[in-house]
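Example record

One chain of 285 residues, shown exactly as stored in the release files.
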Amino acid sequence: MAGSSRRARGMVAMASVGLAAALALAACSAGGGDDPAQAAPTTAAPSTAAPSTATPTTAAPTTEAPTTTAAPTTAAPTTTRPKPAEPAQLRSGAEGAAVKALQRRLHELGYQVQEADGRFGPETHHAVVAFQKVNRLARDGVVGPVTRKALERPRVPRPRSGKAGFHVEADLTLQVVYLVKDGKIQEVLDASSASGQTYVVKGDVRLAVTPLGSFQIQRKINAWRKSELGLLYRPAYFTGGYALHGAPSVPPFPASHGCIRITTAAMDRWYDRLPVGTPMLVYRT
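Predicted structure tokens for this chain:
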């Protein structure tokens, strides 16, 4: 009995030892499950938070750079700035697009401007004066509001003779010369005829007049001619000593001793087209 009792106690003791070992093993396996969860931050390591996504590369202010939004080249005022207004007046010495437009308009209307070069030179001045004469305006050679308005709706001059062929007409009232072909005016020239005043030649007092009537070109001199009364450029005589000729001075009023003055440039342009025998009418309107 005693032996049986000891064997029984031994078995109980062994069972207790086994139970204790089993509990210890359970405790180790439970502890091993907790430690990795706490050390897991290496797996949860801020690789997810490692914000390569949060790095400012995506938010890099390259998109905010003012180069695209603030580059005001497109908004530069040059595109919206109004064009400068045309000068209130155009006169001798002026240059530019407004002068060029004026020259084109005068040429279109038949006045003595031959080239639209944008420079308000002598021929442009005389063309303006001739236009003002025909349109009964002040003869100052300045294109102001009144002359500019007249250029829009001008008076169209008409020749006295509508016959076929080429002839010359001088209107002493308007102080212009018309070059006419087949009843149509080819060109209008600024001119200056006799002043109507007295003058003295070799002690003889004479009255400056230009004869009226129907004439023909009788003779021509293709050079400067020095007379007792002054210089005549390439004169074309239509009766006696009276000629249509070029002159360095062609004022906007009657100023000669009796001849009809036009500019030297105009005489150069027309001299070869004025053969002897060309009809010429001189009249007042």
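Notes: The first strand starts at residue 166 and ends at 171.
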